[in-house]
Every structure is written in C-alpha cells, then in structure tokens.
C-alpha cells in the first residue's frame, strides 16, 4: 500500500513540493529562532562565572555587562581609582579585579587589568583560565593573548606589539613609543576572553602618559622609563571592576550600598540578572518571530489539507479502482492520513537538515561577532516536542480529508 | 454458486428497481442486457458489494451479503471478485505491471494464490493478446483496447471465483469487441469461475451460456 501511496503522491509532485517547502520554511524559522536564542543564552551565560558583581559607572546594567564581559559596545564613562580603592577595602569583598578598556590591537580589544584576572575570573562551569604557553605574569611591559588572538596572529612568546589608541585599530593612532612583549597565551575558553589582548593596568597608564583627551601631546620614545615616578602609573580611572564576595547572601545589601555611594554615581550589577534583562528585551522580538512562525505553520497545514481535499476530486477514479480491487473506505482514508504523515515527516527531516546548517553558520557568526562558542545538538527535547506537535497537528488535520474519503467511498458505485 | 433472491434497490430519488432472481453455477458465462437505466450496473454493484444490499438475499460461495458488514464485503471482494469497468480502468501514474498487480495488493489470500507474480502476469498478458514489452509502460501510452485487456488481466490475477464486467466492450469497435470477448473466454477457468458481463451490446449474445434481459423484468 505504501508503494501505491508513494506513486500517487509522486504523480502530484509539484503541489506536494510546494506544501513541503511551506512547512519546511516555517519549521526552519521556528526552530532556528528557538535554537539561536537558546544557544546564544547558553553561550553568553557560559562566558562568565564566579563574578558576583560588576561595578561600573551608573548606566544601563545590560550595557555594562555587554561591554565589560562581551566587549560589545563602548563604555560611556569610567569610575575613579579612588572609588576602586574604597571598594577594595570593603569587608564583604573577597576579591576585586579592575579593568580598563578603550584600546585595541589588530581586530582585537585590549583589556588592561592585573594578574588577578586570571586567578579569579572563571568561565563555564566555574572553569579556571589556563595558559597554553607562558604564564600569568602580567608585568608592566607584558601582554597576554587570548587563544583566538594568538592563533590568528600566529604569535609566539617574546613577540612585541604596539597597541592602538581607541577601539578601532584601523582608525586609531598607534602607541608606538611603548611596546608590549608577549608573555603568555591563554588556553581556548570558547568565550570572548579568547579574543582579548591583556596588558598590565599600569602599562596601560604608561602608554597614555603623553596623551590628553584622546590626543598624543608628547612622545615617550626618548625618555628613560625607569625614571618615571611609579605614582604616575597609578590609574586615575578604570572602566569597571569585577567583584567576588565572601558570601553570596550579602549581594543585595552590597548592591544597595554601592548605589548609595555618595562620592560618584556608580552601580553594582549582577551579571546573571543583567543577562536576564537582556533576554527579556530580545524575547519580545523572539516572541513576535515565533508567533509569526506558528502562523505560517498553521497556514501551511491548512494548505496541506486543502491540497489533499482538492486532489480527492481528481483522484475519484483512482479511489474507485482501489475500491473495486478490494480496498475498503478505511484503507483509502488511511492512505490520505499516510499522505499527511509523509508530507509532515519529509518536511521535518528537511527542516532538521536546514536547521543544522543554519546552526553551524550561526555558531561561526556568534563566534566571530561575540567570541562565544555555541554547541548545537542535532535535536533537543524541546525541538522534538515542537516537531511532534506539528506532525500530530498535520495528521489530525488530515482526518478531515480522510473522513471525506471514507464517506465518499462508503457507497461509491462502480461504473 | 451465486444466488440472488428478490433483490431490489431504491435510489435516493425514490426510484426502485427490482431484479430477477439469479442462480449461477460455476463455469457459467452470463450476459446481462438491457437498456440504459434498467439496472444492469446496479446489479453488478450489488454483487460486487459496492453498494449496500437493501432488500432481498444475495449469496456467493457461501458468503451471505445481507449478514455481513461492509469491511467483510470489501475483504470478500478483494479475495474472490474481479471487476472491470466500462472505461478508465487503469491508474495513469502506475505502470501496466503495477496496475495489474493492484488486485493482489488488498488481499493476502488472493496474493497467496499467485506463486510467481511476474510469470502469472505474463501468462495473462499473452493469453489476452498483449505483448510483454508493455509491462513497464505507463498506461496512458496504451490504446483503449489494450487498456481494457490490462484491466481484464488485473481482474483475473489471483484466480477470482467471480468475474464481473460492466460494458467492457462499449469503447471497442466490432472487430475488437469480438476479439476481446474471445480472448477473455480463453482465460476463463470453467471449473472454478463464473463470468457475468453487463452490456447492451447484442452482438455478444451468442458468446454466452445464458442471457438475462433486464428490459423484460
């Protein structure tokens, strides 16, 4: 019977292909949104671990997380180093790591920090940052490369680099009076850390000594750097600070205290809460797309049922011949249901193939733009549920033409 | 043996047709004639179990139609009856071979009677004057006469005990009609089968054992 049904559907290949195309596109749209959303969420959440709070200038918490962790966008303000010193002394703080952003090297962003960064900042399931080569000694003139940076630039320990002022290396002016020597290459993390160039916070201050308001006033080239007063290398401002607390229970009191800090407007952001805010913003668009996809799926299913019902009129003779050869009306109805099942299954298989391709592409794009690695499985439980619902809806909706077939053939005379 | 007693059928428009009693024995070739609307096709439909029996009794090979559910009648037809329409007997997107083997697709018992499907199909094809090279052809490439013969092959595959045909020669010319009937009877197994053909074609009368004229009922 399957062969008969298959030959029959093959004889109506064009409308069948069109319906399959409609179903495939809508399923691909729905699954891709679902998959990219979940994949992005997972990979973003994977990017930082162990940081209880990020302290930065008072602004949008989402923006602070985006530019300090994911290096998306630019900081609009800084916090003073005095504030950082004050924070460092607070008794509930276990560790605090300052960062300063703003410069770049090649296509990568430069992050000025201390060696504590590699001790305290974790990723994924509390994974420690490791070194593929060199070590974590981030001296005044040292630089450490993330795994992707070293791979792209084919770097080796001892290489010297000059960073560029500003976050766009193509347009900025090179800090050509001070070079940084590569002292370490990090292991791959699958997070934005892989795309970072680390330098010492005081080194960052050093390259900016001759600069004012983003312009180079004088060069340090012919100056004896050893004679520079170390006090001059204490940063005046930093972009933000990552904080680990002794007890997670103190997080909300700590946040409140920071908000009420009178010396300057700063805020303490909990990364996971900020990311939730981000997903709720993005979620509105996602919901719109999802709704649209479901509507397209419903329309496709209606079109499928319409196709089958319309074809029944043209297939009267075919059905009659089956009946004359012993097929019961139930057999014929089953053939109609099988047709819907076949269209549904083929659509699902094709949709999964397309979604796998899109996931692969999306994964590389997420890695390129956000530095996050995303692992998409072939079929998740949630996706399987969605596809089962669509298949079930398809089969249930085919009951209409199946019933029409049954009724039409119950007392169909042969002639 | 096929027996019908006091059969009558009432259409939805109120018209009722009463059919003559019939007692057909194995080996008989029966022609039912009559003008259009005399009930020839309806009678065949009742015997084939395509329409539900309303009044009277009908039995074939120990199977009483009036006591059976539709599902059982379908199964019975698949197993024991071969049916040929007036025209358009074949499914255009299937090959000749696929069309012929349709008759054993819906009955395991009938399929079990055919040892080697291809050999049996070839035997029937050749005995009905068809060539073996048409086997894989699409049926749309066949003449009407060839299509009718292929339909007969299908109806005969698996050795049904009852062969029914409704106006099988209406689309054929004189010569082709005679040839068709002659070849059909060549495949007829007198020891096992009954043939009932409904036709208003009086040229066929002499070829049959018995003629029932529905105009005289």
Report on the biggest sheet of chain B. Answer: 5 strands, antiparallel
Whole-number average pLDDT of chain B?
Answer: 88
Q: Spans of chain B with pLDDT under 50 lasting ≥5 residues?
A: none
Number of domains of chain B: 1
Instruction: Give me the CATH architecture of chain B, please.
Output: 3-Layer(aba) Sandwich
Beta content of chain B comes to: 15-25%
Distance between the termini of chain B: 22 Å
The helical percent of chain A reads 40-55%
- Strand elements of chain B, count: 10
Task: Encode the helix/strand succession of chain B as letters.
Answer: EEEEHEEHEHHHHEHEE
Any idea what the radius of gyration of chain A is?
31 Å
CATH topology of chain B: Rossmann fold
Biggest β-sheet description of chain A = 10 strands, mixed
Cα radius of gyration of chain B in angstroms? 17 Å
Mean pLDDT across the residues of chain A is 86
The H/E string of chain A reads HHEHEHEEHEEEEHEEEHEEEEHEHHHHH
Instruction: Kindly state the number of beta strands of chain A.
Output: 16
What count of structural domains of chain A? 2
Q: In short, what is this structure?
A:
The complex is a heterodimer of chains A (415) and B (217). With 415 residues, chain A is an alpha+beta fold.
Describe the structure.
The complex is a heterodimer of chains A (415) and B (217). Chain A has helices at residues 2-11, 13-46, 61-68, 81-88, 116-120, 147-153, 201-207, 251-259, 271-314, 316-324, 329-370, 381-397, 399-410, and strands spanning 53-57, 79-80, 93-105, 108-113, 122-123, 127-128, 131-134, 142-145, 160-161, 180-186, 196-200, 211-212, 215-216, 237-238, 240-245, 266-269. The model of chain A has no long low-confidence stretch (mean pLDDT 86). In chain A, helix 2 packs antiparallel against helix 9 (271-314) and helix 11 (329-370) runs antiparallel to helix 12 (381-397). In chain A, a hairpin with a 3-residue loop joins strand 5 (122-123) and strand 6. With 415 residues, chain A is an alpha+beta fold. In chain A, the strands form four sheets. In chain A, strands 1, 3, 4, 7, 8, 9, 10, 11, 15 and 16 form a ten-stranded mixed sheet that branches. Chain A has a two-stranded antiparallel ribbon with strand order 2-14. A two-stranded antiparallel sheet of chain A has the order 5-6. Helices cover 51% and strands 16% of the residues of chain A. Chain B is an alpha/beta fold and 217 residues long. Chain B has a single domain (2-216), classed as P-loop containing nucleotide triphosphate hydrolases (Rossmann fold), CATH 3.40.50.300. Chain B contains seven helices and ten strands. Chain B has helices at residues 40-48, 70-80, 96-100, 108-112, 117-127, 144-156, 174-186; strands spanning 2-10, 16-18, 22-24, 29-33, 55-60, 63-64, 81-84, 162-166, 194-198, 210-213. In chain B, the strands form two sheets. In chain B, strands 1, 2, 3, 5 and 6 form a five-stranded antiparallel sheet that branches. A five-stranded parallel sheet of chain B has the order 7-8-9-4-10, with helices on both faces. In chain B, strand 8, helix 7 and strand 9 form a beta-alpha-beta unit. The longest helix of chain B has 13 residues, at 144-156. The model of chain B has no long low-confidence stretch (mean pLDDT 88). The chains are: A alpha+beta (415), B alpha/beta (217). Chains A and B meet through helix 1, helix 10 and helix 11 of A and helix 1 and helix 2 of B.
């Amino acid at each position: 019977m399957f062969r008969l049904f298959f030959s029959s559907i093959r004889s109506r290949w064009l409308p069948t292909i069109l319906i399959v195309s409609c179903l495939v596109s809508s399923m691909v749209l729905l699954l891709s949104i679902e998959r990219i959303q979940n994949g992005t969420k997972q990979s973003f959440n994977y990017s930082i671990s162990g940081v209880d709070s990020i302290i930065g200038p008072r602004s949008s918490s989402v923006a602070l997380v985006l530019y300090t962790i994911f290096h998306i966008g630019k900081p609009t303000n800084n916090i003073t180093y005095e504030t950082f010193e004050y924070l460092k002394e607070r008794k509930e703080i276990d560790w605090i790591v300052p960062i300063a952003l703003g410069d770049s090297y090649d296509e990568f962003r430069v992050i000025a920090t201390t060696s504590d960064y590699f001790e305290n900042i974790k990723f994924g399931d509390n994974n420690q940052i490791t070194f593929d080569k060199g070590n974590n000694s981030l001296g005044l003139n040292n630089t450490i490369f993330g795994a992707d940076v070293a791979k792209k630039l084919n770097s080796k320990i001892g290489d010297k680099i000059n960073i560029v002022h500003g976050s766009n290396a193509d347009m900025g002016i090179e800090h050509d009076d001070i070079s940084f020597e590569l002292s370490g290459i990090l292991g791959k993390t699958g997070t934005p850390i892989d795309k970072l160039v680390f330098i010492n916070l005081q080194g960052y201050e050093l390259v900016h000594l001759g600069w004012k308001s983003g312009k180079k006033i004088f060069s340090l080239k012919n100056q004896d750097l050893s004679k520079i007063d170390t006090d001059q290398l204490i940063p005046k401002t930093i972009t933000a600070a990552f904080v680990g607390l002794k007890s997670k229970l103190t997080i909300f009191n700590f946040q409140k205290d920071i908000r009420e800090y009178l010396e300057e407007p700063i805020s303490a952001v909990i990364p996971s809460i900020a990311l939730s805010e981000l997903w709720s913003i993005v979620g509105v668009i996602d919901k719109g797309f999802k709704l649209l996809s479901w509507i397209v799926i419903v329309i496709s299913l209606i079109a499928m049922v319409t196709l089958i019902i319309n074809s029944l009129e043209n297939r009267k003779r075919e059905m009659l011949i089956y009946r004359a050869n012993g097929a019961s009306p139930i057999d014929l109805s089953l053939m109609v249901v099988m047709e819907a099942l076949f269209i549904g299954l083929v659509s699902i298989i094709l949709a999964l193939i397309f979604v796998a391709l899109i996931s692969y592409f999306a994964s590389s794009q997420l890695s390129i733009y956000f530095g996050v690695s995303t692992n998409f499985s072939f079929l998740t439980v949630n996706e399987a549920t969605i596809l089962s619902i669509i298949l079930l809806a398809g089969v249930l909706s085919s009951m209409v033409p199946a019933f029409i077939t049954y009724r039409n053939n119950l007392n169909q005379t042969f002639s | 043996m096929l027996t019908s007693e006091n059969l009558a059928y009432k259409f939805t428009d109120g018209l009722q047709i009463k059919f003559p009693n019939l007692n057909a024995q194995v080996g008989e070739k029966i022609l039912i004639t009559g003008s259009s609307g005399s009930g020839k096709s309806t009678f065949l439909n009742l015997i084939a179990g395509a329409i539900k029996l309303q009044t009277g009794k009908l039995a074939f090979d120990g199977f009483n139609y009036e006591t059976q559910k539709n599902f059982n009648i379908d199964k019975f037809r698949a197993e024991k009856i071969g049916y040929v329409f007036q025209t358009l007997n074949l499914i255009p997107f299937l090959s000749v071979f696929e069309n012929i083997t349709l008759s054993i697709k819906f009955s395991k018992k009938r399929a079990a009677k055919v040892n080697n499907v291809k050999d049996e199909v070839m035997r029937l094809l050749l005995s009905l004057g068809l060539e073996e090279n048409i086997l894989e052809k699409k049926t749309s490439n066949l003449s009407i006469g060839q299509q009718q013969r292929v339909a007969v092959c299908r109806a005969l595959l698996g050795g049904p005990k009852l062969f029914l045909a409704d106006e099988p020669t209406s689309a054929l010319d004189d010569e082709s009609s005679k040839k068709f009937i002659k070849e059909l009877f060549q495949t007829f197994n007198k020891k096992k089968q009954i043939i009932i053909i409904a036709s208003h074609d009086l040229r066929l009368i002499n070829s049959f054992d018995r003629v029932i004229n529905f105009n005289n009922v």
